[in-house]
Amino acid sequence: MKYRKLGRTGLKVSEISLGSWLTYGNSTDKETATKVIDKAYSLGINYFDTANVYANGKAETIVGEALKKYPRESYVLATKAFWPMGTGPNDKGLSRKHVFEQVHASLKRLGVDYVDIFFCHRYDPETPVDETLRTIDDLLRQGKILYVGVSEWTAAQMAEALQIADRYLLDRIVVNQPQYSMLYRYIEKEVIPFGEENGISQVVFSPLAQGVLTGKYKPDAEIPSNSRAADPNSNMYMNQFMNKDSLLKVEKLRTIAERLGISLSQLAIAWVLRQQNVASAIIGASKPEQVEENVKASGIKLPDAILNEIEEILK
């Protein structure tokens, strides 16, 4: 496993990280999730990503219990807050009240004294950014959070946050968590250049486009009954990729992977990691074998000729 620095910090995270969205507490039972986490840890993954809203807190509990057997200093743990955790008017967003309460609730579910990274799970237009950043800074000073992150923020939103942090001498954002894959590339235009210029890494989710870039789905073929696309609890985000144009591109990419002697998923993750601003690619896994295959993407360097060929396909 290779490791990369997170933003302008001294923290190093594994190029491949393990997430718990749509899996733990939902489609993957606790015993299987624990086996997946153990496999990831044994293969050198040191960054584990979760959020309060994943399975309404169940994912955090499962992740925390699985990691409890390992030295706390040996892994990087991240969680998030923004999305509703109840029906009350203050049970969502990035207000001081909600962030303060959710960080403490997450720490309790995870069974730890601190999280390495706390992410603002989305931008909150209803809360002043200075209120959110000051709350996070207070939690940093209390030792409950070590680094500040955001998820799916635009370059303009991150610029606003940096200006406020500098004005009030608050800790700066060092990481953003956007979606990024061969089939979903919006961050290349503004977010990555902004991150490179301002010391903000990207830790990207869905590098396999919800599993479409594993090659299991074929144009004009029936969806496999045991796949994510066939599961109504986890396929709601796949529609944008389950079209003939995307699936035809995937078939062409498969031939490149075969020529290189690697799997299509390894090619897709290595392509994401070609961006030095990407510190880590978050994979989701419901089986230990999936982790074993995906971690092999770490350290793969794709030649320029191959990158050019991929670019022609993706156009």
Q: Strands, helices and their partners?
A:
Blueprint: E1 3-5, E2 12-14, E3 16-19, H1 30-42, E4 47-49, H2 58-67, E5 76-81, H3 96-110, E6 115-120, H4 129-141, E7 145-150, H5 155-168, E8 173-176, H6 191-198, E9 201-205, H7 244-260, H8 264-272, E10 278-283, H9 288-295, H10 304-314
Parallel strand pairs: 3-4, 3-10, 4-5, 5-6, 6-7, 7-8, 8-9, 9-10
Antiparallel strand pairs: 1-2
Helix pairs in contact: 1-2, 1-9, 4-5, 7-10
Describe this structure in words.
There is one protein chain. The chain is of the alpha/beta class and 315 residues long. The protein has a single domain, classed as Alpha-Beta Barrel (TIM Barrel), CATH 3.20.20.100. Helices cover 37% and strands 15% of the residues. The chain is built from ten helices and ten strands. It has an eight-stranded parallel barrel with strand order 3-4-5-6-7-8-9-10, surrounded by five helices. α1 crosses α2 and α1 runs parallel beside α9. The longest helix has 17 residues. The mean pLDDT is 94.
In short:
The chain has 315 residues and is an alpha/beta fold.
Distance between the termini: 31 Å
Taking the sheet with the most strands, its summary is:
8 strands, parallel, barrel
Shape: globular
* N-to-C order of helices and strands: EEEHEHEHEHEHEHEHHEHH
What number is the mean pLDDT? Answer: 94
Q: How much helical structure, as a percent, in the residues?
A: 25-40%
How much β-strand is present in the residues?
5-15%
Structural class: alpha/beta
> How many independent structural domains?
1
CATH architecture: Alpha-Beta Barrel
CATH 4th-level superfamily: NADP-dependent oxidoreductase domain
